[in-house]
Amino acid sequence: RHPERGQVPPDHFIPIAEDCGLIVPIGEWVLRQSCAAAVHWNAHRPADRMLRIAVNLSPRQFVSHDLIRSVRHALEDTGCRPEWIELEITERLLLDDRGQAEDTLHRLRAMGLTLAIDDFGTGYSALGYLTRFPIGTLKIDKSFMRDITTRADRAGVVRAIISMGHSLRLGLVAEGVETEEQAAFLREQGCELAQGWLYGRPMPPQAFGEHVAARITPAAPAPLLPA
Questions:
Q1: I want to staple 139 with a disulfide (CB 3.0 to 4.6 A). Which of 66, 93, 173, 212 is the partner?
Q2: CA atoms 17, 19, 25, 27: torsion sign
Q3: pLDDT confidence of 225, banded at 50, 70, 90?
Q4: How many other C-beta atoms lie within 10 A of the C-beta of residue 142?
């Protein structure tokens, strides 16, 4: 919250934080807050309906400090179970040819956390990393959603990503879903999860807790759930 500019969105302040290095302490704070929120939100949920919170990681967090230690301390200090946290990375991190990212990712996966590739489909075409790294989820970039019901090429790309994900036994999340038509297309193609304004807008933690608590209806069908 800026006194003159009001709410400054992430796509404005995150690039600046990346450039000046502030993204490292910001990322550590976000991880701790997310772990604490996961503990709070899961405290009274049924064992088969536990929430998993996705946390974005910056490539700087892999090279600027001991990420493994920070993650371990965040989990231990908050009492968060590792299966309640999913760490999201970008495709460019996987081009690290020094092996540092690969080693760190394997150690994080061994700790019990799940790993996802954010904005999949907009980065690099060398898909060999999908079998090299312990990735569990592909998040289909929101840019493909805009015209998914009107442009055959966009629909074809999404179809191909979903098919590839199924073949590799990876989880799939469609980003930026805003209409029922988009959700229906994804359902037909077998995409398990979606996120976007169709399901909810950014909200304070307390409001989100109330939102998900109201959705605990075991008998209700949920073929496509908000991520």
A1: 173
A2: positive
A3: very low
A4: 16
Nearest to residue 180, comparing CAs of 136, 217, 224? Answer: 224
Provide the residue type at 129 as one letter. Answer: Y
The encoded tokens of residue 85 equal 């946290």
pLDDT value of residue 140: 92
Report pLDDT for 96: 63
Rounded to two decimals, the pTM is: 0.85
User: Which pLDDT band holds residue 71 (cuts at 50, 70, 90)?
Assistant: very high
pLDDT surpasses 50 at 222: no
* pLDDT score at 50: 92
HEC profile of the chain: CECCCECCCHHHHHHHHHHHCCHHHHHHHHHHHHHHHHHHHHCCCCHHHCCCEEEECCHHHHHHCCHHHHHHHHHHHHCCCHHHEEEEECHHHHHCCCCHHHHHHHHHHHCCCEEEEEEECCCCCCCCHHHHCCCCEEEECHHHCCCCCCCHHHHHHHHHHHHHHHHCCCEEEECCCCCHHHHHHHHHHCCCEECCCCCCCCCCHHHHHHHHHHCCCCCCCCCCEEC
Q: Compute the residue count for the chain.
A: 227
Say yes or no to pLDDT of 35 above 50. Answer: yes
